[in-house]
Amino acid sequence: MSRWGAALLVIVALAMPALAADMPSRKAGLWEITTDAGGHGIKMQQCIDAATDQAMHWHNSSSPGTNCSKRDVQKSASGMTIDSVCTVAGKTMTSHIVVSGSFDSNYTMTITNEGGAQPAPRTIVLEAKWLGPCAADQKPGDTIMSNGIKMNLLNMQKGMRPPGMPGAPPGH
């Protein structure tokens, strides 16, 4: 994974505590997720089911060292807006998140974070579309990065490293 790809994942992960309790569940199956931050983007495919989607939301909302003092959620017919102030690893971060679309077919999430270890505000646009059922060789939590690296996010939450990374077990 490129340095930009890793940075984008970290920024999205930092915004997740503000989102987790308010996000509807995604439709089970294979989702293609494209993330862009100022021209630096990554594309991945993620296989999810209801239990995996809920587990990922729960994990992100209960990350150690995260405490949110403000969370303002405004829902509308076309989506939602979430404004939050959270302390992550001792640093205050504000997030403004706009979500639109359908969690059954496609959605867009625009995340603007400011504070924390970032020297300036950063905006990320995440676009996701449902592709259909997961492939026969995929299990819920499997994520395939654009460079072909396959990892299981549930295993990573448990401290396992994805194949191809130093110290990782061979295979999947």
Keywords:
disordered C terminus; 3 helices; alpha+beta; nine-stranded antiparallel beta sheet; 172 residues; disordered N terminus
Low-confidence stretches: 1-11, 13-18, 160-172
Which band does the percent of strand residues land in? over 45%
* Termini Cα gap: 17 Å
Order of helices and strands: HEEHEEEEEEEH
Helical region count?
3
- Helicity, in percent? 10-25%
State the strand order across the main sheet.
Answer: 3-4-5-6-7-1-2-8-9
Summed over residues and divided by their number, the pLDDT gives a mean of: 76
Say what oligomer this is: single chain
Biggest sheet character? 9 strands, antiparallel
Shape: globular
Radius of gyration: 16 Å
Number of domains: 1
Structural class: alpha+beta
Short recap of the structure:
The chain has 172 residues and is an alpha+beta fold. 20% of the residues lie in helices and 46% in strands.
Describe the structure in your own words:
This protein has 172 residues and is an alpha+beta fold. It has one domain. Helices cover 20% and strands 46% of the residues. The chain has three helices and nine strands, in the order H-E-E-H-E-E-E-E-E-E-E-H. The chain has a nine-stranded antiparallel sheet with strand order 3-4-5-6-7-1-2-8-9. The chain is globular. The N terminus and C terminus are likely disordered.
List the helices and strands and how they pair.
Elements: H1 3-19, E1 29-37, E2 40-48, H2 50-61, E3 66-76, E4 79-88, E5 91-102, E6 106-115, E7 122-132, E8 142-145, E9 150-152, H3 153-157
Antiparallel strand pairs: 1-2, 1-7, 2-8, 3-4, 4-5, 5-6, 6-7, 8-9
